[in-house]
Amino acid sequence: MELETPRASRPLAVLGGGKTLTRNERIIYRELCANARPMKAYALLERVHQQGLRAPMTVYRALNALIRHGLAKKVASMNAFVALRHEAGKTAEAFITCRTCGRTMEIGLSQRQVDEIFSAAGMQISDVFIEAYGECGAPDCKKSSADVPQESGGAVLRRE
Fold first, then answer.
1. Which of 8, 28, 76, 78 could be cross-linked to 62 through a Cys-Cys bond (beta carbons 3.0 to 4.6 Å apart)?
2. Which residues contact 27 (CB under 8 A, 6 or more apart)?
């Protein structure tokens, strides 16, 4: 099964083994894909209310399922969620967020890159989620209502 992602340059392979997303999961996933910024659960609820999702728990259940399926991640420092647009051969994600406008860009990391970054730790790394902050410098970059952390001085490494 494949879903067309509105802002992705190509379709995203969703689930193998004949599994499919529920209606609510598809609605939430498409909304996450349609936004260049991480979205909080209640902002998602406001945006999908007209499509029949009216309870916060409905949104949280869909988000949790998308995370389990590897289609979304929680940006811990923002308490918000982003859709993952996996690249072939990439096993981890790094997200770079503009402090001014809140746009977020995903960069896929290969297992070799993860091993190079974390080899000094001497641990078997099973999950990596990297958050980094900077300024995008885009011509239309302006302050948004997104909660973009300002206190972080560099990359924030988090294990989930």
1. 28
2. 48, 51, 53, 62
